[in-house]
Amino acid sequence: MNELLIKLFTCPIIVLGADYFINQVHYVSPYQAVITGLIIAIVAYFIELNLLGPGTILLDTFLDFLLAAIVIYLSSFVFPGSFISYTGVLLTALAITAVEYFQHVWLVSVGYRDIP
Q1: What distance in Å separates the CA atoms of residue 54 and residue 23, rounded to the nearest whole number?
Q2: Which of 1, 61, 72, 115 is the most buried (most CB within 10 A)?
Q3: CA 43 to CA 1: how far, in whole Å?
Q4: pLDDT at residue 115 is higher than 50
Q5: What are the backbone angles phi and psi of residue 37, rounded to the nearest 5°?
Q6: What confidence score (pLDDT) does residue 116 get?
Q7: Predicted local confidence at residue 1, as pLDDT
Q8: How far is residue 36's CA from residue 18's CA, in Å, rounded to a whole number?
Q9: Are 101 and 34 in contact (CB under 8 A)?
């Protein structure tokens, strides 16, 4: 459950940081960036529950990249006034993926398997 809390904290912060520091990412309001990050965190957590294991770190990380890119891209259509270029989508998704990769390595090293 701690891994979900970590994701719920890091993903919105990364998307919000991208909104402030990357010119190609623009949300009208900070809550739009936070909601986008929360959606990425929740879906990534369920992907992690089903896939993450010792031999699937790269696969899970790649799926996190695809998920982040798709959600961020679609958020520009869902939230009125927001604009995110392809470069902004890729840079933000890469930032999320980098954090997710290190989290996956850590979770596998401590023997993560939180499936009920």
Answers
A1: 37
A2: 72
A3: 14
A4: no
A5: -65, -40
A6: 41
A7: 67
A8: 12
A9: no
Mean pLDDT of 85-93: 96
**Cα–Cα distance between 103 and 77 in angstroms, integer?**
30
Mean of pLDDT values over 73-95 = 96
List the structure tokens of 8.
């719920």
> According to the 3-state scheme, what is the secondary structure of the chain?
CHHHHHHHHHHHHHHHHHHHHCCCEECCCHHHHHHHHHHHHHHHHHHHHHHCCCCCHHHHHHHHHHHHHHHHHHHHHHCCCCEECHHHHHHHHHHHHHHHHHHHHHHHHCCCCCCC
Report d(CA 7, CA 15) in Å as an integer: 12
